[in-house]
Each structure stands twice: as C-alpha cells, then as structure tokens.
Amino acid sequence: MREKLTTTFKTAFHDRENSDLGSTRLFFAPGRVNLIGEHIDYNGGFVFPVALSLGTYALILPRQDNQVRVYSMNFPDQGVQSFLLDDLVYDEKHDWANYPKGVLSVFADKGYVSERGFDAVFYGTIPNGAGLSSSASIEVLTATIWNTLNDFQVDPINLVKLCQQAENSFIGINCGIMDQFSIGLGKKDYAILLDCESLNYEYHPLKLDEFAIVIANTNKRRGLADSKYNERRGECETALGKLQEKHQITSLCELDSATFEKDQEIITDEIHRKRARHAIFENERTIQAAKSLTEGDLKKFGQLLNESHLSLRDDYEVTGKELDSLVKAAWDEETVIGARMTGAGFGGCTVNIIHKDQLDEVMKRIGDKYQKETGLEAMFYVAESGQGPHEIT
Fold first, then answer.
1. Is 179 marked active-site?
2. Of 119, 179, 315, 324, catalytic
3. Rounded distance between C-alpha atoms, residue 230 and residue 228, angstroms
4. CA 39, CA 317: separation in Å to the nearest integer?
5. Annotated binding residue 361
6. Which of the residues in the chain have pLDDT under 50?
7. Least CB-packed of 14, 73, 162, 352 within 10 Å?
8. Is residue 70 part of a domain?
9. Which candidate, 191, 205, 195, 177, places its Cα nearest to that of 49?
10. At 109, which CATH number?
C-alpha cells in the first residue's frame, strides 16, 4: 500500500520530487459496520458496531508553510485540493476535502493550532456511499494525523468528539457519535457495545464460530446529506418533547418499551409515535443482541437482527425497495440466520450472518434474486474486523 500511495504522491505533488520522500508517513483508519442499533445513537441508546479491515489510508509529508494540499485516489478527477490553515471555511468546490478541512478547523477552534501544513494522498477501500462510514473514517484519520504530527495529546474519546463536531458544525450533518467512536476506538476481533448517552462502552468478542459477517452493498447510492436523516432526527426530538410532558427524560432511549406502550398516546402524531417506537425497542434489541452474542446464542442474535430490519422498514421507514429486496433474498436462504439494513438507509448496505458452508453459492443466489428484483448488481464483502486508527510503520 505504501508503494502505491508513494507513486501517486510523486505524480500529484511533482513539485516535491526533490523532497525527502523517505520522510512520508502512512496512517490508516477503519470503516465500520453496525451490527444492530440503528438510528438510535442520537436518541441516547446503545449501538453495537465493529471496526472493519476496510478503511482509509493517507500518505503525508509535512510542509514548512501553512498550506494543506490533499489528493484522493478515489476522486482523481477533482485533482489536488488546496487550502490554508488560517482560512478553514467550508467550500462546496472542495467536495470531499471539506471533511479533513473541517477536522482541522475544529481542532483550531479548541486551541490546537499549528502553523505547518502538509501534503497528503488519501485512498479509501470503503465503497463510497455504501453506509460504512467513509466520511467518519476520513475525519478520524485526519484527526489522528494532526494529533500525531503536532503532539497535541488529545485522548481518543475527545478526538472522536472533535470529529463528530466537524461533521455537525462544519459539514452540516447532524449525526450522532457512533460512527466516529466505533472507528476511533475500534479493536480487532471485538464489537463495541456503546451507550451513546454516557459514552460508557464495553468490548464484546466476536464469537461467530462457523458463521461469517457478510456485508452486501445494494449499489444504490445515497448521500447522507441528501437523505431524510435530519428529518428523522427532528421527528424523534418532537416525540421526545411530547413524552417529556410526563417523564423526566433527556432522550427517548431512557424509556423502556413497557413504559412507552403504556404512555405512547401522549405522542398524538402517528408518524412521530412510530419513530419513537423504533428507537425505544431498537435500544432493547441491541442490549439483548450483545448478550446473545456473548453467550453464543447466535440463533437469538440473528432473530434480533431480523426484527431490527422490520422496525426500520415499518416504523422508521428508512429502507426502500433495494434494501428490502436484498434482505428478503437473504432471509430466503436457510444458512442465513439474520439480515438487516445497516447505516443511515435509503440505499447502502445490509449486514448478514451466514454460515460459512457454501458461502459463495449462497451469496450468488442472493445476488441473482436481488438483480432480478431491482436490476442492480449487489456486491458482497466477507467482513473482517479491523484495528482502530494508527500509523503504519
């Protein structure tokens, strides 16, 4: 990977050919897949994500001035994007480069300032628009680079908070903390049970035995900014406001399902009631799923994944024909014990728990059914867990 990025670096930044390319440094941050716990990170609930071996690489070379130049091998048509450390403002023309720029801006706002920029080539192995958090991967990668280069000594929890702030205030996506947290604190061979309200977390071993985690990409692109993500969040906030008329809570997931069932009529709007129902029940499913996985009850774990998809389809309404078709094709297979959409929805990926026996044949049958139903070709990835952000030496 280093050789591949170095070759591109020489081409993209040809004016630095005489620089000591031996001083370049290579960093990596993973993507993530959320096994269960969807659309509840901003509702104060539990999520259960896994960092992936897929992720984002960056080869960087520090500069002596305050300029930052970045190039993405995934968007070569955009060429080199350039900006100054004293002019970190959102620029639509900079497209993907606003993510690293936003991170540097938030660092500066918090007093972590440097006068020396860098040149960097980025390369992501995460399918763009698949819902595996390529944007958060870039953010956490940039934060790790900036923190390391300048020895700011920002601890991992505060580092991911800065990345979330960059997405919220600089990019304008009102996301929760899950994506940045699961990438920033990812651990190979473990899933993270994260309480998004308190940020308390536990590592749970991925005990899947003869089963594999398979990510299936619908290849229906969806931009998070263009989706109804912010709309759903607003609907949940409205529902919370209604429930607060009776309950002293600060987030939906503080309520248990029994209390919600008893008092749900407080939410007079049926749509808002459905959104709250998903958040509260999904939170309980997530806790049960982590327990089931730890205890080795994979049948129960898979059943909870299936229930999660039904809730996202019927109560939260963020699936759509493509995701539903891909999940249905998986459910038709005997060796699939669980399948659901993962990510923001409206396209992107499903996560499936499939027996390793005849795995290729099963994925082919699922893909054939999906293509017949939608006209799109799904792509499958047998997911391997990955390590959190780090420098590759």
1. yes
2. 179
3. 6
4. 11
5. no
6. 224-225
7. 14
8. yes
9. 191
10. 3.30.230.10
Does this model's pTM top 0.85? My answer is yes
d(CA 28, CA 56): 6
Q: Give CA angle at 131 (383, 235), nearest 5°.
A: 135
C-beta neighbour count of 338 within 10 angstroms:
27
In a domain, 334, yes or no: no
- Is 3 one of the annotated binding-site residues? no
186 is in an annotated binding site: no
The strand pair at 67-72 and 118-124 is best described as parallel
Is 311 within the bounds of a domain?
Answer: no
Q: What is the pLDDT of residues 194-233, one digit of tens each?
A: 999 999 999 999 989 899 999 999 998 765 435 687 899 9
**Residue 135 annotated in ligand binding:** yes
Burial of 11 (0-12, 13-18, 19+ CB in 10 A): exposed
Domains of the chain: total: 1
Tokens encoding 234:
């607003």
Query: What residues make up the domain containing 143?
Result: 2-204+387-392
Please state, in angstroms and rounded to a whole number, the distance separating the CA atoms of residues 342 and 131: 7
